[in-house]
């Protein structure tokens, strides 16, 4: 069994399981079809991000763990503790089944977790800041900073736009088309904007990785889901025409903007003093 796999029964239903395929959020529709890696940079980027976050012996908080895939990887790294925070009750139940006896998942908003100040060494969030408004992003960042101890790390894996000087009108058009297609108000930023946002929250940028955004490519899914997982997804698409239409629509949108869409993973650090040094801000 790989570290990111989990054993034992996982409770149903999935979030949004009762919604028609035409109305479900894109990521939960894909999960319904059997897709388990729902991150823009794939499993390889998540693995690299967690490695750079230094999880062993750390108190870890994960925002919006969803299916619990990353939670399994975090636990495999040997943290001192794990707490997930998700605002979907179905997701909370699923993650608690995965981390039972080794951690817990709480029903709460990532912008207001209710956890104590400076109670975490690492905060992890994947593919969730992208879905927030500017105000929502700022609130979640502020919460992450509040939770982190000095020297703690905030590790994010998000959708990005490229190049950094992308035409603002093009960026707005892409965001609107993404929101229409995936049924979530997606607001990806350029890498420079992600870096600036973290800096404005008082964090110091550490590592930055980028990758192609190939969430629905056959090659990426063969790597992320494995042959049996990919076969399961294809079989479900064949049997569910409404879902197939949605997925093909999403794939067309991603393909149309493949040159402008990418994945980014950043690990940023909370300074050990109130005022970062000049070197820390570089």
| Computed structural class | alpha/beta
Give the CATH H-level superfamily: Vaccinia Virus protein VP39
H/I helix tally: 10
Q: Beta-sheet strand percentage?
A: 15-25%
> What is the fold-level CATH name, i.e. the topology?
Rossmann fold
Specify the biggest β-sheet.
8 strands, mixed
Assign a percent range to the helix content. 40-55%
Number of strands: 8
Shape: globular
The overall pLDDT average reads: 91
CATH class: Alpha Beta
Low-confidence stretches: 1-11, 276-282
Structure, explained:
The chain is an alpha/beta fold and 282 residues long. It has a single domain, classed as Rossmann fold. It has 10 helices and 8 strands. The protein has helices at residues 26-32, 42-53, 69-76, 89-99, 134-147, 168-182, 191-200, 218-239, 241-256, 278-281, and strands at residues 59-63, 81-86, 104-107, 120-126, 148-161, 189-190, 204-212, 261-269. Strands 1, 2, 3, 4, 5, 6, 7 and 8 form an 8-stranded mixed β-sheet that branches. Helix 3 (69-76) links the parallel strand 1 and strand 2 (81-86).
Summarize the structure.
By secondary structure, the chain is an alpha/beta fold. Helices cover 42% and strands 20% of the residues.
SSE arrangement:
Elements: H1 26-32, H2 42-53, E1 59-63, H3 69-76, E2 81-86, H4 89-99, E3 104-107, E4 120-126, H5 134-147, E5 148-161, H6 168-182, E6 189-190, H7 191-200, E7 204-212, H8 218-239, H9 241-256, E8 261-269, H10 278-281
Helix pairs in contact: 6-9, 8-9
């Amino acid at each position: 069994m790989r570290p990111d796999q989990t054993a034992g029964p996982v409770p149903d239903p999935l979030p949004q399981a009762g919604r028609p395929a035409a109305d479900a959020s894109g990521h939960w529709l894909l999960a319904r079809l059997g897709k388990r890696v729902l991150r823009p940079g794939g499993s390889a980027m998540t693995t690299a991000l967690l490695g750079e976050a230094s999880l062993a012996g750390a108190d870890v908080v994960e925002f919006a763990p969803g299916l619990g895939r990353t939670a399994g990887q975090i636990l495999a790294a040997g943290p001192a503790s794990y707490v997930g925070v998700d605002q979907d009750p179905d997701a909370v139940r699923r993650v608690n089944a995965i981390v039972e006896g080794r951690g817990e998942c709480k029903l709460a908003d990532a912008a207001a977790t209710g956890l104590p100040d400076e109670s975490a060494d690492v905060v992890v969030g994947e593919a969730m800041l992208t879905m927030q408004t500017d105000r929502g992003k700022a609130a979640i960042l502020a919460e992450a900073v509040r939770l982190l101890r000095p020297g703690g790390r905030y590790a994010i894996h998000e959708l990005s736009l490229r190049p950094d000087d992308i035409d603002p009108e093009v960026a707005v058009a892409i965001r609107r088309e993404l929101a229409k297609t995936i049924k979530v108000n997606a607001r990806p930023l350029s890498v420079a904007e992600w870096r600036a946002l973290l800096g404005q929250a008082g964090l110091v940028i550490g590592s930055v990785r980028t990758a192609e955004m190939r969430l629905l490519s056959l090659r990426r899914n063969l790597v992320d889901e494995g042959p049996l997982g990919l076969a399961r997804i294809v079989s479900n698409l064949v049997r569910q025409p409404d879902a197939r239409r949605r997925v093909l629509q999403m794939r067309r949108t991603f393909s149309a903007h493949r040159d402008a869409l990418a994945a980014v993973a950043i690990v940023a650090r909370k300074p050990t003093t109130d005022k970062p040094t000049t070197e820390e801000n570089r």
